[in-house]
Amino acid sequence: MSTEQTPLSIEVTMPREDVALVVVQGFLDVDTATELHHHLANQTHHDRRHLLLDLSAVPFMDSSGINIILKAYKETRQIGGSVGLIDPAPAVQRILDLTGVSLTVPSYATAHEALDKVGDSLNQS
């Protein structure tokens, strides 16, 4: 029986100048969370204040992943931005609910819905 996990794959696109859509695939845990953190930090460094994380292909996330999401949330809020989660896999959604992260960081069913909400928050500021 193999204990090997799916390697983390991260793809970043920019649907708008200030928005990064980050599609994450694979296990988000202590071994891979730093890689995601580097990608998110790179986006904020390039003036993308709004980060949308597609977690639909993340079958498992531990506290390391939660910490990266919360850190990104805090850092984007300091620069007038936001973090949104897109379609978290059921096991990941359960962790987000149990830890209370889902009360702080909003989740959306689709990237289109998340982009619409980012637009709403920009118009209100």
Automatic annotation (TrEMBL):
Family affiliation: Belongs to the anti-sigma-factor antagonist family.
Pfam annotation, one family: STAS
InterPro entries assigned: Anti-sigma_ant, STAS_dom, STAS_dom_sf
SUPFAM superfamilies listed in its UniProt record: SpoIIaa-like (SSF52091)
Source species, domain of life: Bacteria
Family matches, as CDD domains: STAS_anti-anti-sigma_factors (cd07043)
STAS domain sequence ranges: 17-118
Transmembrane segments: none
Lineage: Bacteria, Bacillati, Actinomycetota, Actinomycetes, Kitasatosporales
Record-given protein name: Anti-sigma factor antagonist
